[in-house]
Amino acid sequence: MATYSEYFDTLDFELNQTKEGGDRASNDKFRILPSTQATRYINEAIRKLVSLCPDRFEEEYIYTFLADSETFTVPETFQRLIALWDGTDNNWYIPSDSSDLEDGIIYSPSHNTLHNPDGWLTDDTLKMKAILYPAMPADNTADITALSDVVLFPAEYMDLLTLEIKRRSYARKGRKIDQTEWIEYQTRIARWQIDHSKITQKSYIAFQGHSFGRRR
Asked: How far is C-alpha 193 from the geometric centre of its chain's CA atoms?
């Protein structure tokens, strides 16, 4: 896998923004996509593509509470929380959106929080099935030429990621990618949207809520 710095070399080539000699970062005035904005463009493009093919990014995630709490806030690294694990019934279930239930049921009072009336204690764990964005550099404005973080995206679709970034970069300048690339982009993104997990999985998620209190 390429680092962000290495991948920027690919973007430099694809956007025809290479310049002979000189420091890479100092070439920004010649670039459609400046080195100080490239990390943000890559991350935004990845997040868009994750939302169009979420199955490929589904994982189990275990959160450990560092303090007593009745609330869990879904991290920004989650594209979507799918289900919670009930260790008593050994089953996945989707939390209710209503508090009008029997005592002890974990429910979701808002789009990004879970509430547990019984509360979680320090070191309690919450096991979830979720769509997770790939790990990305925290600083979107860092000079990409100095970043050694790896671009975490399926290798067979890096061409689609490049086309998505190129399309966005050109749009910033009021331009469009050429017709051949536009057709390729549409073809690849259509394929991406129907390309699911490499492993065929049978779902055991229960679609009806039930009592679910504090679990370790």
From this structure: 15
Residue 133, CA distances (Å) to 13, 58, 185 in order: 27, 9, 22
Q: Which residues face 127 on adjacent strands?
A: 62
Neighbours of 42 (CB within 10 A): 27
Three-state secondary structure call for residue 180: helix
Q: What is the DSSP letter of 94?
A: P
Residue 201 lies in a domain: no
Over residues 144-194, the pLDDT tens digits come to: 989 999 999 999 999 999 999 999 999 999 999 999 999 999 999 999 999
HSE, side-chain direction, 13 A CA sphere, residue 210? 13
In a domain? residue 168: yes
Please give the residue range of the domain that contains residue 39.
Answer: 4-55+136-194
Do both 69 and 100 map to the same domain?
yes
Q: Please, what sign has the CA dihedral across residues 106, 212, 64, 61?
A: negative
**Number of CB atoms found within 10 A of residue 174's CB:** 6
pLDDT digits (tens, 9 = 90+) for 106-138: 889 998 999 998 899 999 999 999 999 999 998
